[in-house]
User: Fold this.
Amino acid sequence: MIKVFLLALALAVSLVGPAGAGPLEDGLAAYQKGDYATALKFWQPLADQGTAVAQYGLGVMYEAGQGVPKDHVQAAFWHRKAADQGHADAQYTLGFMYEGGQGVPKSAAQALFWYRKAADQGYAKGQHALGNIYYRGESVPQDYIQAHMWMNLAVSRYTDSDFGFRASAVERRDEIAAKMTPGQIAEAQRLASAWKPK
Assistant:
């Protein structure tokens, strides 16, 4: 989770560009050095002002107890703030927290809701999680076509640095395919090809 956070934050910071260098980037530099107190000093005001990336960063820090006491309730609070603004990493993380009941009441329906929000943006881990939900039939009727489609999308969107997640999605997609007819597999592949991020 922390590695994913660092990559997501680095990407967000790179999109701001050199002209936008400031507290967000300074907080990232401190976080990467393990200076969590300084990262908190930079990110807390930004999070309070509504900066989704900083809110997500605080959520990760509370989740791991980095520079703050480990507190899943506070982690969920900050992840929700970022997720409500469309931050895909935070949406996925909030889904994960609802699935396990960490800092929030355990809820398969809420997990589904947040995973779908991340998946609809093209976020591979959200698509992977959504595929698993359709495969298991949690809060939705079991649907191998939807499960295969979402796993296919996840496989195609994982980057080289996500090789472990990608391998897991490939394995699950193949497991699902073994339970499907050739026509169902073709339909799942057609749906995956036609899918567009929202």
